[in-house]
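User: Can you fold this complex?
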Amino acid sequence: NAGVTQTPKFRILKIGQSMTLQCTQDMNHNYMYWYRQDPGMGLKLIYYSVGAGITDKGEVPNGYNVSRSTTEDFPLRLELAAPSQTSVYFCASSYLEQELFFGEGSRLTVL
Amino acid sequence: GENVEQHPSTLSVQEGDSAVIKCTYSDSASNYFPWYKQELGKGPQLIIDIRSNVGEKKDQRIAVTLNKTAKHFSLHITETQPEDSAVYFCAASNPLNYGGSQGNLIFGKGTKLSVKP
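Assistant: Here's the predicted assembly.
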Protein backbone atom coordinates (compact mmCIF):
# COMPACT_ATOMS: atom_id res chain seq x y z
CA ASN A 1 0.00 0.00 0.00
CA ALA A 2 1.16 3.54 -0.75
CA GLY A 3 -0.38 5.03 2.42
CA VAL A 4 -0.80 8.82 2.21
CA THR A 5 0.49 10.43 -0.97
CA GLN A 6 1.00 14.18 -1.36
CA THR A 7 1.80 16.16 -4.49
CA PRO A 8 3.70 18.25 -5.32
CA LYS A 9 6.69 17.76 -3.00
CA PHE A 10 8.04 21.24 -3.73
CA ARG A 11 6.47 24.38 -5.17
CA ILE A 12 7.39 28.04 -5.46
CA LEU A 13 4.54 30.51 -5.80
CA LYS A 14 4.40 34.22 -6.39
CA ILE A 15 2.37 36.41 -4.06
CA GLY A 16 -1.27 36.38 -5.12
CA GLN A 17 -1.13 33.11 -7.04
CA SER A 18 -3.35 30.17 -6.19
CA MET A 19 -2.65 26.46 -6.08
CA THR A 20 -3.96 23.14 -4.82
CA LEU A 21 -2.01 20.63 -2.76
CA GLN A 22 -3.21 17.13 -3.52
CA CYS A 23 -3.58 14.37 -0.94
CA THR A 24 -4.82 10.84 -1.44
CA GLN A 25 -4.86 7.81 0.85
CA ASP A 26 -5.49 4.16 0.06
CA MET A 27 -6.18 2.88 3.58
CA ASN A 28 -9.92 3.58 3.50
CA HIS A 29 -9.56 5.94 6.46
CA ASN A 30 -12.52 8.16 7.15
CA TYR A 31 -10.58 10.91 8.96
CA MET A 32 -8.22 13.17 7.03
CA TYR A 33 -6.26 16.24 8.11
CA TRP A 34 -4.06 19.03 6.82
CA TYR A 35 -1.29 20.38 9.05
CA ARG A 36 1.35 23.01 8.46
CA GLN A 37 4.79 22.86 10.03
CA ASP A 38 6.85 25.98 10.53
CA PRO A 39 10.47 25.76 11.79
CA GLY A 40 10.56 25.24 15.56
CA MET A 41 6.78 25.52 15.82
CA GLY A 42 5.42 22.00 15.70
CA LEU A 43 2.36 21.15 13.63
CA LYS A 44 -0.76 23.29 13.41
CA LEU A 45 -4.08 21.89 12.19
CA ILE A 46 -5.52 23.76 9.19
CA TYR A 47 -8.60 21.72 8.26
CA TYR A 48 -9.90 18.25 8.89
CA SER A 49 -12.60 15.94 7.60
CA VAL A 50 -14.43 13.08 9.29
CA GLY A 51 -15.81 11.66 6.06
CA ALA A 52 -16.75 12.40 2.47
CA GLY A 53 -18.74 15.62 2.22
CA ILE A 54 -17.81 16.80 5.73
CA THR A 55 -15.05 19.29 6.48
CA ASP A 56 -14.29 21.61 9.37
CA LYS A 57 -11.82 24.27 10.40
CA GLY A 58 -8.83 23.58 12.59
CA GLU A 59 -6.57 25.96 14.43
CA VAL A 60 -5.23 28.03 11.47
CA PRO A 61 -7.75 27.89 8.56
CA ASN A 62 -7.46 31.45 7.21
CA GLY A 63 -6.30 31.63 3.61
CA TYR A 64 -7.10 27.97 2.87
CA ASN A 65 -10.01 25.90 1.62
CA VAL A 66 -10.64 22.17 1.41
CA SER A 67 -13.10 19.75 -0.09
CA ARG A 68 -13.77 16.04 0.45
CA SER A 69 -15.75 14.57 -2.41
CA THR A 70 -14.39 11.04 -1.94
CA THR A 71 -13.01 9.00 0.97
CA GLU A 72 -9.59 8.87 -0.70
CA ASP A 73 -8.92 12.50 -1.61
CA PHE A 74 -8.59 15.65 0.47
CA PRO A 75 -7.13 18.55 -1.54
CA LEU A 76 -6.02 21.81 0.12
CA ARG A 77 -6.55 25.01 -1.86
CA LEU A 78 -4.49 28.16 -1.29
CA GLU A 79 -6.11 31.30 -2.64
CA LEU A 80 -4.09 34.51 -3.05
CA ALA A 81 -0.83 33.10 -1.70
CA ALA A 82 1.00 35.21 0.88
CA PRO A 83 4.58 34.95 2.26
CA SER A 84 3.06 33.86 5.62
CA GLN A 85 1.93 30.65 3.90
CA THR A 86 5.52 29.59 3.26
CA SER A 87 5.67 26.32 5.17
CA VAL A 88 5.79 22.55 4.94
CA TYR A 89 2.32 21.05 4.61
CA PHE A 90 1.46 17.58 5.80
CA CYS A 91 -1.63 15.60 4.99
CA ALA A 92 -2.61 12.81 7.38
CA SER A 93 -5.33 10.23 7.74
CA SER A 94 -6.61 7.99 10.51
CA TYR A 95 -9.17 5.30 11.15
CA LEU A 96 -11.65 6.95 13.49
CA GLU A 97 -9.63 8.64 16.25
CA GLN A 98 -6.52 6.53 16.29
CA GLU A 99 -2.98 6.72 14.91
CA LEU A 100 -2.35 9.46 12.36
CA PHE A 101 -0.57 8.36 9.20
CA PHE A 102 1.29 11.26 7.57
CA GLY A 103 2.36 11.88 4.02
CA GLU A 104 5.92 12.97 3.26
CA GLY A 105 5.05 16.63 3.07
CA SER A 106 4.83 19.43 0.50
CA ARG A 107 7.30 22.30 0.84
CA LEU A 108 5.76 25.56 -0.33
CA THR A 109 7.62 28.86 -0.76
CA VAL A 110 5.76 32.09 -1.52
CA LEU A 111 7.92 34.88 -2.90
CA GLY B 1 -7.90 25.75 24.47
CA GLU B 2 -5.26 23.10 24.96
CA ASN B 3 -1.59 24.16 25.06
CA VAL B 4 1.35 21.74 24.95
CA GLU B 5 4.84 22.70 26.08
CA GLN B 6 7.80 20.46 25.20
CA HIS B 7 11.35 20.47 26.62
CA PRO B 8 14.14 20.46 25.77
CA SER B 9 14.16 21.82 22.21
CA THR B 10 17.48 20.07 21.52
CA LEU B 11 19.08 17.09 23.22
CA SER B 12 22.45 15.51 22.55
CA VAL B 13 23.39 12.17 24.10
CA GLN B 14 26.11 9.59 23.71
CA GLU B 15 25.20 6.28 22.12
CA GLY B 16 23.99 3.88 24.79
CA ASP B 17 22.82 6.61 27.15
CA SER B 18 19.18 7.33 27.96
CA ALA B 19 17.18 10.28 26.63
CA VAL B 20 14.17 11.88 28.30
CA ILE B 21 11.81 14.40 26.71
CA LYS B 22 9.11 16.08 28.77
CA CYS B 23 5.78 17.65 27.88
CA THR B 24 3.14 19.48 29.85
CA TYR B 25 -0.44 20.13 28.83
CA SER B 26 -2.98 22.64 30.08
CA ASP B 27 -6.43 21.05 29.75
CA SER B 28 -7.24 18.26 32.21
CA ALA B 29 -9.91 16.97 29.77
CA SER B 30 -7.22 15.76 27.30
CA ASN B 31 -7.18 11.96 27.31
CA TYR B 32 -4.83 10.81 24.56
CA PHE B 33 -1.07 11.49 24.36
CA PRO B 34 0.91 10.21 21.37
CA TRP B 35 4.58 10.66 20.53
CA TYR B 36 5.75 11.04 16.94
CA LYS B 37 9.22 10.69 15.44
CA GLN B 38 10.13 12.73 12.37
CA GLU B 39 13.21 11.88 10.36
CA LEU B 40 14.71 14.43 7.99
CA GLY B 41 12.54 14.97 4.93
CA LYS B 42 9.81 12.62 6.14
CA GLY B 43 6.42 12.93 7.74
CA PRO B 44 6.00 12.23 11.47
CA GLN B 45 5.48 8.61 12.47
CA LEU B 46 3.80 7.36 15.64
CA ILE B 47 6.21 5.58 17.98
CA ILE B 48 4.14 5.19 21.15
CA ASP B 49 0.96 6.56 22.71
CA ILE B 50 -0.80 6.50 26.06
CA ARG B 51 -4.33 7.11 27.20
CA SER B 52 -5.34 8.84 30.39
CA ASN B 53 -6.45 5.63 32.14
CA VAL B 54 -2.85 4.32 32.09
CA GLY B 55 0.20 5.64 33.95
CA GLU B 56 2.98 4.01 31.96
CA LYS B 57 3.48 2.12 28.72
CA LYS B 58 6.57 0.38 27.35
CA ASP B 59 7.61 -0.86 23.92
CA GLN B 60 11.12 -2.32 23.87
CA ARG B 61 13.54 0.63 24.39
CA ILE B 62 10.78 3.25 24.47
CA ALA B 63 8.51 4.11 27.37
CA VAL B 64 6.01 6.85 28.09
CA THR B 65 4.82 7.95 31.53
CA LEU B 66 1.79 10.08 32.33
CA ASN B 67 1.08 12.08 35.47
CA LYS B 68 -2.51 13.33 35.19
CA THR B 69 -2.39 15.26 38.44
CA ALA B 70 0.60 17.30 37.33
CA LYS B 71 -0.54 17.29 33.69
CA HIS B 72 2.74 16.13 32.28
CA PHE B 73 3.98 13.17 30.29
CA SER B 74 7.45 12.04 29.28
CA LEU B 75 9.17 9.94 26.63
CA HIS B 76 12.06 7.74 27.75
CA ILE B 77 14.44 6.14 25.28
CA THR B 78 16.99 3.73 26.74
CA GLU B 79 20.19 2.43 25.13
CA THR B 80 20.05 5.10 22.45
CA GLN B 81 21.37 4.34 18.99
CA PRO B 82 22.41 6.69 16.14
CA GLU B 83 19.22 5.78 14.26
CA ASP B 84 17.22 7.32 17.13
CA SER B 85 18.46 10.73 15.94
CA ALA B 86 15.38 12.64 14.77
CA VAL B 87 12.87 15.27 15.87
CA TYR B 88 10.35 14.00 18.41
CA PHE B 89 6.92 15.57 18.93
CA CYS B 90 4.54 15.07 21.80
CA ALA B 91 0.85 15.79 21.35
CA ALA B 92 -2.35 15.92 23.37
CA SER B 93 -5.92 15.41 22.21
CA ASN B 94 -7.81 18.67 21.91
CA PRO B 95 -10.88 18.66 24.16
CA LEU B 96 -12.39 21.52 22.14
CA ASN B 97 -12.81 18.92 19.41
CA TYR B 98 -13.17 21.57 16.73
CA GLY B 99 -16.71 20.46 16.14
CA GLY B 100 -16.64 16.90 17.38
CA SER B 101 -13.55 14.99 16.39
CA GLN B 102 -11.25 13.76 19.14
CA GLY B 103 -8.71 13.05 16.45
CA ASN B 104 -7.49 16.63 16.54
CA LEU B 105 -4.16 16.85 18.27
CA ILE B 106 -2.24 19.79 19.69
CA PHE B 107 1.47 19.27 19.11
CA GLY B 108 4.48 20.43 21.07
CA LYS B 109 7.21 22.32 19.23
CA GLY B 110 9.49 19.31 18.96
CA THR B 111 12.81 18.08 20.36
CA LYS B 112 15.77 17.49 18.09
CA LEU B 113 17.58 14.45 19.46
CA SER B 114 21.15 13.78 18.36
CA VAL B 115 22.81 10.50 19.33
CA LYS B 116 26.59 10.60 19.00
CA PRO B 117 28.33 7.32 18.15
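Chain A touches chain B through 27 residues (CB under 8 Å). Residues 12 and 69 of chain A are 27 Å apart (CA to CA).
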